[in-house]
Backbone:
């Protein structure tokens, strides 16, 4: 189970132990709103990634196992709602859609670096 909390923190709970498994701060504390993170297979390898946004305009792809940041996309426009993950191109992996505060919808195509 994944969560967000004030201060741009995203984390995971260990369902078996009932304890927090990890947490990661995504940005400075003054950007306090972090919508709920979403999970999706962005690379098409059968393993999910975690995607989170902040109202500071940052979109972050994280490892769901450790919370390590795999990629960060920045735009100087706030994001007020959670991202959407969907495969609309029918290629391996899903795309990330983000609605920014200026009304633009952006599609991000995450590619895992080797």
Residues:
């Amino acid at each position: 189970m994944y969560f967000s909390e004030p201060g741009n923190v995203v984390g995971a709970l260990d369902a078996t132990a009932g304890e927090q498994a990890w947490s990661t701060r995504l940005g400075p504390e003054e950007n306090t709103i972090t919508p709920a993170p979403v999970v999706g297979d962005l690379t098409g390898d059968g393993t999910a990634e975690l995607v989170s946004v902040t109202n500071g305009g940052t979109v972050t792809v994280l490892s769901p196992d450790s919370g390590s940041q795999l990629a960060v996309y920045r735009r100087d426009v706030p994001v007020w709602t959670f991202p959407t993950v969907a495969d609309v191109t029918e290629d391996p992996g899903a795309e990330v859609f983000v609605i920014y505060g200026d009304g633009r919808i952006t599609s991000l195509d995450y590619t895992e670096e080797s």
